[in-house]
Write a structure and sequence with these properties.
Shape: globular
Radius of gyration: 31 Å
CATH topology of the largest domain: Glucose Permease (Domain IIA)
Distance between the termini: 96 Å
CATH class of the largest domain: Mainly Beta
């Protein structure tokens, strides 16, 4: 009897084999398709695994011979399946918006990218992402205000209210605050509620930001909105640039700390915050060189004199008037633009004082090249002698934009004069912290000196 039972069990084992232990211990892994320019080292670093584990899991015989289109299994991501891709974070995207639009688990993207804080995501970040079918991707369809709840949004969209709650991971339709975005599945039957998606477009140039550059923040809306905000430590001032279009200009200091800088923007209408925006931006080097060491009058590098002059100049350029007097590019302030020193160069004065060049210098190329002209229309807000900048003129062009003309031998304008572009304001000289006749020309954008060359070569805004 026992022999018959063992025989039956043997045949059952042959006909219906038990799943192997190997299959249980080797679940399906997510995969990545090699792109042009990828190497195993780059891929391993991107996914936080070792090259050795990639080679082992994928049975790669020659690690130096992988080619574009090769499908590589990625170890160490148990419980995750399907194709993984690398996406670049664009302006306006946050960790929360990426999670909501792609409808992925809250912990998936942080796990794939080893993120411990939303602050680690900024414009230009490269994120490992699962491939999501296009039909499953949600879009912003409305913004919560004090007058419009999630229930109102559902009614306007003709959508089941509880579907809205589930898609937006709300505990209930009451679980929202003014300014929060509601996501949904737009279709031919339900279009986005454009009356509540007030902002049509937001752009920031340049990206990434760079030391000494002028950041231009431009917003296009569906209706008039009051905007405020900040970029780093500087308050942003928005001005109309057309119908339902607003622009703010902000200078980036030539010696700003590299890394991440935050931008905050608030859009308000009738007391409601209808467009809260926060983003981390990458700030890169301006890649400036070094100027030759120079020797100057010691009083021009005296700390007390420098502090007094900085305080005076900062006070002069504090005003941000709503008028905009300039149009297009600034014109060159001299007859022959012979530039002898560019913006940003590191300088050592008298072997001890270190600073950087806050403008560009125009030398006297010919005997007739001594006239100084206004680079754009504007009001003269300073005209007189300074210890460091010498005889100087500062012109207010409106909306926080100023130009400065230093080391003059002669000043031909007075405070309060309104000048046109190309109007004579003085003569090139050698006053102040100077080692020879030249014009030191500066452009200030919302209290910050920026590289004047960009203003001479392109129109802002």
């Amino acid at each position: 009897m026992l022999n018959k039972i063992l025989t039956i069990l043997f045949f059952l084992a042959v006909l219906y084999p038990h799943p192997s232990v190997y299959a249980q211990d080797d679940p399906e892994l997510p995969y990545y398709i090699v792109q042009s320019g990828d190497t195993l080292t780059v891929i391993a670093a991107r996914f936080g695994v070792s090259v050795t584990s990639l080679v082992s899991v994928n049975s790669i015989e020659n690690p130096n011979a992988i080619s574009a289109g090769t499908e590589l299994s990625i170890p160490g991501l148990e419980g995750i399946q399907g194709e993984l891709v690398i996406n670049t974070v664009t302006l306006g995207e946050t960790l929360q918006s990426i999670i909501m639009q792609n409808q992925v688990p809250d912990d998936l993207i942080p796990r794939l990218n080893r993120i411990t804080s939303p602050k680690e995501i900024y414009v230009g970040s490269r994120l490992v992402m699962p491939v999501v079918e296009e039909d499953n991707i949600l879009s912003p369809i409305s913004v919560i205000t004090r007058q419009r709840s999630a229930l109102d949004v559902a009614v306007l969209q003709g959508t089941n209210p509880w579907s809205v709650a589930i898609q937006n991971r709300l505990n209930g339709l009451w679980d929202t605050l003014p300014g929060e975005t509601i996501y949904g599945s737009p279709s031919d039957e339900t279009s986005p509620d454009n009356n509540s998606l007030f902002v049509k477009d937001l752009s920031i140039e340049p990206l990434p930001l760079a030391q000494g550059s002028t950041a231009e923040i431009r917003i296009t809306t569906t209706q008039p909105i009051d905007f405020s905000g900040s970029l780093g430590e500087y308050e942003l001032h928005f001005f109309p640039a057309g119908e339902n279009e607003y622009v703010a200009l902000q200078g980036i200091p030539g010696q700003a700390d590299l890394g991440i800088v935050q931008i905050f923007i608030n859009g308000e209408s009738n007391g409601d915050v209808i467009f809260p925006f926060e983003q981390d931006l990458l700030l890169e080097s301006g890649y400036f060189g070094e100027d030759a060491p120079v020797f100057v009058d010691p009083i021009t590098i005296d700390p007390d004199n420098i502090a007094k002059e900085d305080e005076l100049l900062n006070g002069v350029v504090q005003n941000v008037s709503p008028e905009k007097y300039w149009e297009g590019e600034l014109q060159y302030p001299v007859d022959e633009p012979c530039i002898s020193s560019y913006f940003g160069g590191s300088r050592i004065y008298n072997g001890s004082y270190h600073y950087y060049h806050t403008g560009i210098d125009f030398s006297v190329c010919t005997a007739s090249n001594i006239n100084i002209y206004a680079a754009a229309p504007g009001k003269v807000v300073f005209a007189g002698p300074l210890v460091i900048h010498g005889n100087s003129v500062i012109i207010d062009h409106g909306q926080g934009i100023f130009t400065m003309y230093s080391h003059q031998s002669q000043i031909d304008v007075n405070v309060g004069d309104f000048l046109q572009a190309g109007q004579l304001i003085g003569l090139i000289g050698n006053t102040g912290r100077s080692t020879g006749p030249h014009l030191h020309f500066e452009v200030w954008v919302n209290r910050v000196e920026v590289n004047p060359v960009s203003w001479l070569q392109r129109a802002y805004p």
